[in-house]
């Protein structure tokens, strides 16, 4: 059982705070970046937009570029990483669902 599971299970028991509505008990939010400038040359057609037979590249659909998606995590601003809201004063940082840099 992971720390996330422990936090979720604890938040479902009677008398404990409910899971955070913003992060659904994870303690973090996903930041997804996909912008037009965040693209790379297509590795299938090497940026040409078409294959050796002259057909449109199936990977980039003729653009020659592949969109790069970046996903990173930031601590939930509502529960501050605890995964439950409201955060009980007795809850220690070791019990938080999201602890960056710790496994």
Gyration radius, to the nearest Å?
21 Å
Shape: rod-shaped
- Give the helices and strands as they follow along the chain: HEEEE
Largest sheet: 2 strands, antiparallel
Helix coverage percent: under 10%
Between the first and last Cα atoms, what is the distance in angstroms?
13 Å
Oligomer status: single chain
Structure description:
With 103 residues, the protein is mainly beta. It folds into 2 domains: 1-29 and 73-103, no CATH class; 35-68, no CATH class. It contains 1 helix and 4 strands, in the order αββββ. The chain has one helix spanning 3-12; strands at 28-33, 39-41, 65-67, 70-75. The strands form 2 sheets. Strands 1-4 form a two-stranded antiparallel sheet. Strands 2-3 form a two-stranded antiparallel sheet. The protein is rod-shaped, with a radius of gyration of 21 Å. The model is unreliable at 1-11 (pLDDT under 50).
């Amino acid at each position: 059982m992971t720390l996330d599971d422990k936090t979720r299970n604890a938040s479902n028991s009677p008398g404990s705070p409910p899971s955070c509505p913003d992060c659904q008990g994870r303690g973090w939010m996903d930041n997804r970046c996909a912008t037009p400038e965040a693209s790379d040359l297509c590795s299938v057609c090497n940026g040409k937009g078409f294959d050796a037979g002259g057909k449109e590249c199936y990977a980039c659909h003729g653009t020659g570029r592949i969109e790069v998606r970046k996903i990173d995590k930031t601590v939930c601003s509502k529960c501050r990483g605890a995964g439950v809201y409201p955060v009980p004063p007795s809850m220690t940082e070791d019990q938080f669902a999201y602890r960056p840099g710790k496994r």
